[in-house]
Amino acid sequence: YQRRVHGDFIITMAEESKDYADKIVEPLLKEIRSVLLAKKPAKPIEYLLDWTKKKLKEKAEESDSDSEKSVDSDSEEDNVPEIPVSVPTKRNVPRTSVSAEVYGDWNKKELFKPKVVPKSPETVKKIKELLQKPFMFQDLDPISINIIVNAMEEHKAKAGEVVIKQNDEGSCLYIVESGVLSCTKLFPKEAEPKLLRQYNVGDLFGELALLYNVPRAANIIATTESTLWMLDRETFNNIVKDAAVKRRQNYELFLSKVPILASIEPYEKAQLADALRTNRYNKGDLIIKEGEVGTSFYILSEGEAYASKTPKSGAELKILMEYKVGDYFGELALLKNAPRAANVIAKTDCAVVWIDRDGFKRLIGPLEDLLLRNTQKYNIPEKTSAQLNYHPNIILS
Length: 397
What we know:
single chain, 4-stranded antiparallel beta sheet
């Protein structure tokens, strides 16, 4: 029996191997080809090794122990079903909970034993203050925060030191206690790395490799002497990872549907997702008040809203703009360093994601020209609430 499996290769197989080829080999080759074409990794062999290990993790989570098949240590795995989250496993050992990583051998995760690095009370307090800024630590309970603080190790970086190198494997993340670091990335077909951003006190970096089990996405270089606190992969996986991945994925999915953000790089979009917060408003609530100092940029994620000017006594409310999901507002005050030019009011119960002024300048700065060009959208005829068949129940003072 002969069957064409891939390209110009013809594999002759016994009749009894036909089902194996049809059910295992061909789907796997097709999936590998699709993954490689989609990701285009610079090091395909290393990428596929990590990809395969991660698939084992998902298989282990979805299957009972009696559905797992062990193999000899020098043979390849028989079953590789879905995409990754790598894991340590021990062969021929009853299945326990499975970690999301692989450290060399595929060993099952042992009971997590929190690491404790001695610190003074002053240092503990300082680290806890630093952890209040990064999104992924904000919803953790006090016990989890204490585990993270205990596990962190200090790293002193000299000016010019490459703390993280693009495409290396990641074993930890960092949070900045002092100093300034630069993030650069070498893009395909470019000779020199591009400066993406700077990291300052309280900023977090290095988490992408831990969240998604991928090589380092960029270089991080100490611009000045810097003091950093490192969190190891194992503690991160056991305490932080699941909630952080889910939160980031939800925000990234939403951001992918916002037209104004279509041109930013995936790395920048991930950083933006980390900086976003959500607020909810009831119908008629004031989101932005005319004349106030602008401190945030907003994107409507649920419901509807509208912009208006505060009417003079006895005058009818004038509607300037209507907003639907994916529309943004609040950028004028940040771009022009001016007070809010109008009110924005919830037309229905709604939700917005928002980012503060510093995050806006740092992460959405590359879109500044586009945002300024788009301010012409505000040069539209005013409509009355009656023309829109809408009568807001709100007092503007």
